[in-house]
Amino acid sequence: MVFVPARIQKQLACILLLVLSSTGIYFNSLKGSFQFDDVPLISNQWIEDLESFNQFVSISSFENRPVLLWTYALNNSLGKNKEFGFHLFNLILHIGITLLIFFLVLKTSYFQESFNDTRNKDPRIKNPISIWIFPFITALIFSLHPLNTDSISYISSRSSVLATFFYLFSLYLFLNLFNPEKKKNPLVKNLILIPLVVATMYLSLASKLIAATLPLLMGVWYFVFIFSRNKMETLWKKNWAYLLLILISIAALFLLKDSWLYNAKDQGLELYGQLPYLLIQTKVIVFYYLRLFLFPFNLSVDSGMPFSSINEDPSILFAIIIIAGIVATAIKSRNIWLLAGTAWFFITLAPTSSFIPLNDLAVEHRTYLPMTLGVCMVVSWGISRLCSIWRFCFLSLVIIALSLATITRNSDWISEISLWEDVARKNPSSSRAHNNLGKAYFEKGNLARAGYHFEKSIANIPKFTKDKFNLKNAEELLLRKKDPTNSNLRMATDLVEPHYNLASIYLDQGKLRLAEKEYLKTLSLRPDHSSAKIGLGSVYNKKGLYEKAEKLYRQAIKDKQLQSGNDFFPLAHLNLGEVYGKTGKISLAINEWEKAIQQDPSLLPAHFNLGTALMMQGEFDRAEKYLLKCLEMNNKHEPALFNLALVKQKQMHWKDSIDGFNNYMAVTGPKPTILTQIGFNYLNLKDLANAQSFFEKSLRMLPTDMNTLILLGDTLLAQGHSGKAEDKYRMALNLNQDSRLDKILKNKIKNISK
Description:
This protein is mostly helical.
């Protein structure tokens, strides 16, 4: 029987409990759908698979998050656009982070036991159970806390999770450089560990730039848990190389800061300014992040936290006082766990909640890294100091409450509709919430509900711009753009897209005047909105204003060429081809549709239009090719089924044409015109009985169809039923209003009478 030391048994038990608890509460997140930014993100061509990633992405361009993109490419390689795989990857990362928290706190506790002098000795260390409780509770609270659902269930938030994983892993490797126990060959071990520390630090930074604080926190951990507990000679004699590693890393970050660290890719600086943003972040930290950690209710993707200045909002000053009080209390307590946890929380929040203004004032996933060894560790330290019975009771209540809240919150992420309905209910004045909910309903085909929420979104824009963007209205942003210092300012999507989306609803509903109004509003706010130009062109197309439509389509293609250096805009080519087709420019139309197909082979309308145009020009073989391709994409596409049957008829492939029309009726049901076409094919096959049968079926459904009457007359005459044939010709003659056909019918009747 294999002997397992008690220490290893306890470790394995803790690991098993942490893995099972994490898996259990996030299990329902595995069936969640892609949300919000997820779809455009994972559809990018450079992460279609690992080969595309290697072709388009440089691993050294860490500001573009190459490690994050690699994980998306890996997911797509294993199962393209499969939600389950993406969610499973996030969950595995979360479990890994939970275990890293456990081992980091445990490792630090061992440092305390080994480095503490007799005056600072923590009596709890003598208890062999105590040393496991603190790390376990820290990891467990982090694992179960519902504030993390935004990071785990939202695929686009993987950057925070991935960066946190390598962040903690790098710190764990760093701590292993300072082993208080004397072992053989420490130099060999350190020569392996130091490159690993640097590598994991880079992997964290290349996942998300929040890792810029890692060298600083390595220094904090060193000075708080190692240097302050050992002799002064530790710094200079034994560990100078490791300290030098920290100092070099910090220096490198400061050297690079002008090029990337303080250059956020959104417009927070122009919207708020650095100092006003810093001041409002004190309120966000205290009254949003800390409140949600302590009371995790009313979690929301869109916080609704309004912008305010310190002059008009006394809660900002109150928040500053609270933060100062927290820091002062941690310092005064002289408790290294409280001090380290407080430092961790505020330092890791700094990249998003200090002098680097971002568009969104408060986002839940920004707390993911700060919670790890920050507030979770501080709260867990307090719980672990309770007596056994109180600790058990309190911890049990906390675990049950957090687990239920997390499972419930995960259910909100199951679909876009459930997620944004939750946001709209909690933050009804959010223009973004109603816009995204409208898009979700639009994609489900519920135009009425979609239109309702788009209208609500537009109605909320004035308040939304004031609260969120510190603007009186959307037009104020246009005025700011005229300032040379803000020349790169771009109209926020939240202010533009509701108008565009509502216009698209009106277009689908045939409300062309209202659609035109909203498209024009969209273009007034963002003149380079190519999709709005396509939409407005479609309005003019439906109104018969083909010159205006053509101009807009051509302009959209030109804009695309200026922006990207190519004319890759399949939808614009498709619509431009349609206008050319309607104005008789068939060759130009064919050229545009061929471009559309070349750029997007999955564009079904382009295949159909091109096949139809080629059929009209008599190029039946080419027409058949595109119509068949159309039916590969949708085997019940009625117009393609009909035109393919016509092509076969033009090619005099009568039996194939009959099969084609039968396939068409299998989708649509019997139609008199189709029955006539089948009868016509049988007539050309000299199958007079079947021809007569189908003509008669057609006339039973539509007795006044003159063409069918004439064809039935011809069929009856060919069978020798001249009297019946004459009756059909006379019926057709009574319905006829064409003088030329009138003459033909009279000649047919005259020939029968001879």
